[in-house]
Amino acid sequence: MDAPRYCYRHPDRETGLSCSECGRPICYECMTPAPVGIRCPEHSGKPQGIQKVTRAAERAVTGVGGRRMNAVTLGLIAINVGVALIELASGSGASFTNNSIFERGSLFATGYVSASGQPLGVAHGEWWRLFTSMFLHASFFHLAVNMYSLYFVGSIMEQVIGRWRFLLLYLASGLAGSAGALVWSPLQPTVGASGAIFGILGGLFILERRRHIATGGQVAGLIVINLVITFAFSGSISVGGHVGGLIGGMVLTLALLQFRRSTLYSVAAVAAVSIAAVVVSYAKVRNYH
């Protein structure tokens, strides 16, 4: 077992983060997110004196202890919970699935019809399901597990790569997860944020392997554990969604690292992964009628 590491500026704070330039361990308060990776105060490109002067102003938009508020992570959680509440309000009883939102937003290729007899599914032109399904859930437990996981891994990733890159990673990974779900189980309705969450895990794994973060292999272990659970309960968990999201997140993070100095190329990489997800989905559903 690796010995604990402590921030070089705050020796009483244990941390798993390290500067991507010098490798020194740093805590959240000392880190400065770069385009990809994090920097210590000496390598952040900002004079230490300026940081001290502006720290009071920064606290107006940061959390306790000077840490950045994970606005995107919290916003995504709020959206998922809000949609779940709307599902409950529009359905009958305490069901997340017996409502029109689930019917019109869940992911499947074909095999279902509306009350008016209209065929439903991606194969019938309802491509929005690739996107909407990542914000729907099937139960309170499903929602709670996914939102806890999103808060845990999303908070780390958002701190490391920044808000807008994190948001794009989340959405593109979610689309990749939807493509994987269609490939693996095209006729089974699929919902949930887990494809996007696995994409975040895949991104953290790449950052771990490239030494942009130092976690002692914890990310790799977490992925293995979750994949074992995924395949062990494949009857109730979307294997394709998890694997597809994981692959999408890893590929996109590799691209973001490669193009970290170019916003244009970073956005192009996100678009490429998203388009690839749609193409894979089309290849799978085009023969269903």
Q: Can you walk through the features of this model?
A:
With 289 residues, the chain is mainly alpha-helical. It folds into two domains: 1-68, no CATH class; 71-285, Rhomboid-like fold (Up-down Bundle), CATH 1.20.1540.10. Helices cover 55% and strands 3% of the residues. The protein contains ten helices and four strands, in the order E-E-H-H-H-E-E-H-H-H-H-H-H-H. It has helices spanning 48-58, 71-90, 100-105, 129-132, 140-161, 163-184, 194-209, 218-232, 239-258, 263-285; strands at 32-33, 38-39, 112-113, 119-120. The protein has a two-stranded antiparallel ribbon. The longest helix has 23 residues, at 263-285. It is elongated. It starts with 31 loop residues before the first strand and ends with a helix. Residues 46-67 have low confidence and may be disordered.
Report a brief summary of the structure.
The chain is mainly alpha-helical and about 290 residues long. The protein has ten helices and four strands, in the order ββαααββααααααα.
Q: Work out the helix count.
A: 10
What is the CATH class of the largest domain? Mainly Alpha
Main sheet: strand order: 1-2
Average predicted confidence as pLDDT: 84
**Termini separation:** 55 Å
Could you describe the largest sheet, including whether it forms a barrel? 2 strands, antiparallel
Strand residues, percent:
under 5%
Fourth-level CATH superfamily of the largest domain: Rhomboid-like
Count of the separate structural domains: 2
Report the C-alpha radius of gyration, rounded. 20 Å
| CATH topology (level 3) name of the largest domain | Rhomboid-like fold
Please provide the count of β strands: 4
Shape: elongated
